[in-house]
Design goal:
The structure holds two protein chains of two kinds. By secondary structure, chain A is mostly helical. Chain A is built from ten helices and no strands. Chain A folds into three domains: 44 residues, no CATH class; 39 residues; 126 residues, no CATH class. In chain A, helix 1 packs parallel to helix 3, helix 2 crosses helix 3 and helix 9 packs antiparallel against helix 10. The longest helix of chain A has 36 residues. By secondary structure, chain B is mainly α. Chain B folds into two domains: 100 residues, RNA polymerase sigma factor, region 2, helix turn helix motif (Rna Polymerase Sigma Factor, Chain: A, Orthogonal Bundle), CATH 1.10.1740.10; 81 residues, Winged helix-like DNA-binding domain superfamily/Winged helix DNA-binding domain (Arc Repressor Mutant, subunit A), CATH 1.10.10.10. Helices cover 68% and strands 0% of the residues of chain B. In chain B, helix 3 crosses helix 4. In chain B, 34% of the residues are buried. Classes of the chains: A mainly alpha, B mainly alpha.
Chain lengths: 250, 196
């Protein structure tokens, strides 16, 4: 055991006067470590002897003071009071459990309602479900139009992304979906006078989409399937724009 | 010539003279006599430790008083294997921690008292210098190390008891005492060199 290890052992020991045998062996042969142990011992002895200010009360006095305080507490906690407090506490406990339970149920129910269902973008049926639920959730005609615009934009953006990945199957799927959305569903929506502004905006949006998808289709001459699907999207956009404008004129 | 290895005879854990060791069984039953024994037996040790930590006798008095009141309120929760001393010091430690937190919140400072000594003028000067250096060294220790060190040295508590009192593990208690000793040795070594 070297000096460092010995000193570590001294510092770690519970009682520095009762050291392990190997530490003692080292100490007998090493003056520096002996001096180290002596110094620590001296420090600890001095700590014990450090003066502390005299207590303000003797132990007997303290006992009387504490008993006085506890007598007071005893009066407060008479059996009847204790019983009442127990009843009260039990009532509070029951109430807090009930509140916690109701809060939990609300949280679960709210969570179930708020958690959006994952969208199945792999089949026309999945996209149709998503579309139906989105339109049905819209509480007014105005909101239904807003939903329609959002759904069309989402599908168009997806179609552009899939075309970029040369995924002809998904572009075709989205073309089918947009066809249904912009032909059947747009016609089902009410076209009253107060919705005029929204219909006008949507028509303009569709006009821009038509030219964008035509331009995009020309870039996919190497993939006729993708180009064909993009042209279909452009055409359904154009048709929808035309029907909207006609409805507006009427 | 080799130095003689020190065999210390330190006076540790001074209790009230004549105080009987408290009876745990009586305490659990709510026996007032047993509680009185508990107060008389541990009053001085608790006061000494808390006064050293707070550096203020009034604060120490209040904390010791509250410790016994809290102990009385929790007495029925004692178990046959409870270490009474560690349990009491644990209550005191919690109260002390609250006291420190409150003071930090209020940003209050208490004057550290100069403790009494019964030595003559020359001895007193020497003693005061040594005590001052030592007190400074202790004050510079991180709070948790200081608390553990004082429990070990001043109250002669085993690491196992310190662990119970501080709500930690025996190894942590050992490590804190080890670090406190190491730091104290370093600090006092430097101070002595400065003095030369």
């Amino acid at each position: 055991m070297n000096c460092n290890q010995t000193r570590e052992k001294i510092l770690q020991s519970e009682n520095i006067s009762k050291l392990q045998r190997e530490v003692m062996f080292h100490l007998q042969a090493c003056q520096a470590c002996q001096a180290y142990q002596s110094k620590l011992y001296k420090i600890e002895k001095e700590i014990v002897q450090l003066q502390v200010s005299e207590p303000l009360f003797s132990s007997q006095m303290r006992l009387k003071k504490i008993e006085g305080k506890l007598e007071w507490k005893k009066i407060i906690t008479s059996p009847l009071f204790k019983f009442r407090r127990f009843e009260k506490e039990r009532g509070r406990q029951k109430l807090s459990v009930a509140v916690a339970l109701v809060a939990f149920l609300f949280a679960v129910a709210g969570g179930l309602l708020l958690i959006p269902k994952p969208i199945d973008r792999e089949s026309i049926a999945g996209l149709r479900d998503y579309k139906e639920s989105s339109i049905n959730r819209a509480s007014s005609q105005e909101k239904k139009w807003q939903t329609m615009v959002r759904l069309a934009k989402e599908a168009q953006t997806d179609a552009i992304a899939f075309a970029g990945r040369n995924d002809a199957i998904h572009v075709k799927l989205l073309a089918d979906y947009l066809e249904e959305l912009l032909q059947k569903d747009v016609d089902k929506l009410s076209s009253t006078r107060d919705l005029r502004n929204q219909m006008t905006d949507f028509a303009a949006e569709l006009g821009r989409s038509e030219s964008e998808f035509q331009r995009l289709a020309s870039q996919y001459s190497y993939s006729p399937e993708i180009a064909y699907s993009l042209i279909r999207i452009a055409q359904v956009s154009k048709d929808a724009e035309f029907r909207l404008k006609r409805a507006l004129q009427a | 010539m080799a130095h003689k290895v020190v065999k210390p005879e330190m006076k540790l854990a001074i209790f009230e003279p004549g105080a009987l060791e408290p009876n745990l069984e009586g305490l659990v039953k709510g026996d007032r006599e047993a509680f009185a024994q508990l107060v008389l037996f541990y009053n001085e040790a608790l006061y000494r430790w808390v006064a050293r930590l707070t550096g203020n006798s009034h604060a120490a008095e209040d904390l010791v008083q509250d410790t016994f009141v809290r102990a009385y309120q929790a007495i029925t929760r004692l178990r046959p294997d409870t270490n009474l001393k560690a349990w009491l010091f644990r209550i005191a430690h919690n109260l002390y921690a609250n006291w420190v937190r409150d003071r930090k919140g209020k940003n209050a400072t208490l004057p550290t008292e100069v403790f009494d000594s019964h030595s003559g003028p020359e001895e007193l000067a020497q003693e005061n210098e040594t005590s001052r250096r030592l007190q400074q060294g202790i004050d510079k220790l991180p709070e948790e190390w200081k608390i553990a060190l004082l429990l070990r040295i001043q109250e002669d508590m085993a690491f196992r008891e310190i662990a119970v009192a501080l709500g930690t593990t025996e190894e942590t208690a050992r490590w804190r005492v080890y670090k406190a000793r190491q730091k104290l040795m370093e600090t006092l070594e430097i101070k002595q060199e400065d003095a030369r």
